[in-house]
Amino acid sequence: MKNKHYDVFVIGSGIAGQTAAKICRENNLSVAISDNREFGGTCANRGCDSKKILLQFSELLYQSKRLEGLGIKKLPKLNWKKVQKFRRSFSNPIPPNTEQNLKDLGISLYHQSPKFISKNEVEVEGKVVSADHFIIATGNIPRELDIEGKEFLKVSEDVLDLKKIPKSITFIGSGYIAMEFACMLATLGCQVTIIERDKTSLANFDQFLVNKLMTKMERLGVKFIFNADVTAVKELKKNLKVSYAVNGNTETHKSRLVINTAGRVAAVKALQLENAGVEVDKDGVVVNDYLQSKSHPKVYACGDVSNKSLALTPLSGLQGYIAGNNVVKEKTKTFDVPCVPSTVFTTPNLSSVGYGEEEAKARYKNIKVYQGDASDWFNAKKENEDTYAYTILVNERTDEIVGAHILSSEANESINVFATAIYNKMTVKEFKNMIFTYPSYVIDFKSMMEN
Ligand SMILES: Cc1cc2nc3c(=O)[nH]c(=O)nc-3n(C[C@H](O)[C@H](O)[C@H](O)COP(=O)(O)OP(=O)(O)OC[C@H]3O[C@@H](n4cnc5c(N)ncnc54)[C@H](O)[C@@H]3O)c2cc1C
Ligand SMILES: NC(=O)c1ccc[n+]([C@@H]2O[C@H](COP(=O)([O-])OP(=O)(O)OC[C@H]3O[C@@H](n4cnc5c(N)ncnc54)[C@H](O)[C@@H]3O)[C@@H](O)[C@H]2O)c1
After folding, report:
1. CB 3.0 to 4.6 Å from 222: which of 70, 162, 217, 343, for a disulfide?
2. Quick one: 4-142+265-328 is in which CATH superfamily?
């Protein structure tokens, strides 16, 4: 077996791995990167970007439906084949372009999963490769459900790649992925059912808003089944039959497709990390604030696969930046969870930044909660949209805004204004002193913070 040595060996070519690899290379370290799938990672190949491209078509149809009879005479018709062709025009070039870009920087590429064979060596493509540092950036993969018939389950990337809109679909779990796809497919005429083990959807989000979102989704035709444990999937002639336990009874539901959206776990199995003594817990590779493996400091982990991540693209990029810099110069940067806005791209969007109500109440003595339904405000009415609501949290002692949660058709953009405000510790008074464009959703934020 041939031997090779690099200063740094990066595993995974998503945003985290690429960012770290480039920083190391820019600092003249010899760098290799491996991926056992197409280069470029989840977000660009089979996640955020593909999803947003598809969603804009269902959103356009939804907007047209809202305005049907108010000026829209005929609803647009979708050519799904063309929609998919358009989506692929973004995702197909990602792997070759990513590879070329990395090669141009002088980074060596491997197209296989490495296996650790000692603390500083992996076996990959028939070679034993040693490195001074390893950076694990292998991301997350769907959590396998250990149920009868699990081989019939599809996952999120199959939904992104649908050749046609199915007549019916069932999602197991109602987190980000299921809720986003459910809105898209229901709008496109698919019968959507969500089977969730918990008593609610999106348990980490503001439940006042989640309840309004679920009511809206029910109006779109989505059926929710809560407190249900899926036990089996069976193949019928045309459909799949899902069996689930609810209130001590076994019930069944039939649909054309069943999607496992019951969460994602760190992709570490193939790496044989036990041979390097790298500790892993239920959230991923156990790292310290420098993103160094706690049990093996020459190994770093960044992005979704680290146990300090929130599986979001901007955070994975940030962690890649921190890990790369710490490899170049030890202990130069630490990861403190920053103020992270996130959006569930549902209909309407559910966006959130800062503390939730419970967290804020636990952290501060007195919290002012501005909460309400804004569906009769101008912005919603002009779109004939029936769902628009908010929860904004303010530390009463300092008047600082500490959390904002918005359910609106464009919250994915406007939440960034609250992200800026919270990051800069703005008070309500300071926020209200700002001039915003009119008419806009952002200017409504001032009115939301009235008594
Ligand atoms: C459907 C979907 C929609 C999403 N939408 C959003 C969104 O709208 N906004 C947002 O912020 N986040 C979104 N996310 C999450 C976001 O995609 C991830 O947080 C982000 O891509 C993680 O980046 P990463 O570099 O850590 O990992 P990844 O991008 O997953 O990269 C890991 C890479 O490692 C490779 N790999 C895995 N195992 C091995 C191995 N053994 N050997 C070699 N290589 C390996 C993989 O093939 C992959 O290329 C979405 C995720 C999904 C699934
Ligand atoms: N817009 C975005 O930013 C975006 C979009 C998609 C994904 N992501 C990231 O990817 C991560 C993974 O998303 P996800 O939707 O797969 O997971 P998730 O963790 O958000 O949701 C999983 C859901 O499945 C439920 N569940 C778990 N086991 C179950 C079972 N056996 N039966 C029924 N329900 C079960 C959970 O209670 C939970 O509600 C997210 O946490 C997020 O960080 C982000």
Report:
1. 217
2. FAD/NAD(P)-binding domain (3.50.50.60)
